[in-house]
Amino acid sequence: MTMVIRKSSSRAMTCLFLSQLLPPTLSHHNHSFSIYKSCRSLSKTPSDFLGSIWCPTVCAAPTIRSFSSKFSESSTTARMQNPESISYLTQREAAEVDEILMGPLGFSVDQLMELAGLSVATSIAEVYKPSEYSRVLAICGPGNNGGDGLVAARHLHHFGYKPSVCYPKRTRKPLYNGLVTQLESLSVPFLSVEDLPVDLSEHFDILVDAMFGFSFHGSPRPPFDDLIQKLVQLCKFDQNHQKSPVIVSVDIPSGWHVEEGDVSGEGVKPDMLVSLTAPKLCAKKFTGPHHFLGGRFVPPSIVDKFKLHLPPYPGTSMCVRIGKPPQIDISALRQNYISPELLEEQVAADPIDQFRKWFDKALAAGLREPNAMALSTVGKDGKPSSRIVLLKGVDKDGFVWYTNYESQKAHELSENPQASLLFYWDGLNRQVRVEGSVQKVPDEESEQYFHSRPRGSQIGAIASKQSTIIPGRHVLHQTYKELEEKYSDGSLIPKPKHWGGYRLKPRLFEFWQGQQSRLHDRLQYIPQEIDRKVVWKIVRLAP
User: Fold this and answer.
1) Can you tell me the distance from the alpha carbon of 301 to that of 235, in angstroms, rounded to the nearest whole number?
2) Which residues are annotated as a binding site for K(+)?
């Protein structure tokens, strides 16, 4: 049975969630931005335990590469922006923006808090992967900033982290009670101040500072004064610890003045600051390595009224980096893979069946173009070359892709009809390597596939003389335009004689599963003839 590869059109869950959560007029706007500080009048904090009040904080959401991944991609990394070109809000302006959002624009506290917490969790996932920074402590105050922290803890749990929460002064309102109930239903532990370990660095990898928002005034009262000091002490170099936990502050680092920054020098010095709505003036004093802005729903009326200059969000991402990321030592880049073991007794006897099983998992995981594969060829000069092509079919006879028969790879295959394919599925920590002989597929098979492609792709295959030197992109556009006009009547576009498919007939498979400490699983399938039948022998290779 032939396995035909088709592109998935599924959308990210995040997009669906946001489209339902935001008012229709605000859910799709070019300048959308992250505002989440809620109306001060709805978020007063009892003055018996804080010298003042604070309010919700702006929300952002993820690139959930990813999680797509990657957490990935990843996944996908948010776009950098020059801090000098970004708008910064005063405390009065931030309060006024909230009043507009919570008034005529119709946002509710719980909407904005949900988006804010999601943005914080997503920003964390952009930089600190759960494979290395899994243990999280969210320290939450009694106001809306604390609510952001509670929501962030819930999303971090679903992202694969192991959050705990310190919430010493709880706000007895239905919204906050519900957030606590949601976390308790996930078995997220709540720790009292007394239960906190003396040395936080031994028990946690990430500390989320969600104690004070931009409307806080005065000096923190117990127990928040001591909690801030705990975080401050962690910022000081300690010879006894090779790795101190990173600190992530929500909108305003605790102990900072909203406009003047860490005036006393006794405030929290975070590694990451997640600004909400727009950065506050104090963010100009932030010197940590990671500054993110969250959310993307500021309407044009607010942008115009406050003359805001805010960075665009890439793709469907709900957080965007401000400033350049820290310089990274390439030699220090590494992942400690966490995967289920790949055991001989668990894999299929036929490598094609095993490939289909893994390919189906890659599809189900929502990985982008899981049919992308590196094709490596070698010409008569002995020099190898590689490129990414797309798998278009797989069956018992092998792996099929389509290309121009006058391209470099085609010339090399005509001289040496041997090739290697490599699939890499980052989100699953998996690779599949396939080696074998290559031959062209029957012309009728190429013809059938060619006419299944979009008309634009058919015209593109004719317009491009692949691998030849051209004077500029305008040549391609001009040729394409002429062909588009030629076939504008909807007539059949003939397949070029120099275009068609190849099939690689496998003679070797290797399935690779990433594991901790580089003790990866590598299972290789080698064909053997027994009683005039080809069977596949499975052997394990050292990583």
Assistant:
1) 41
2) 145, 209, 254
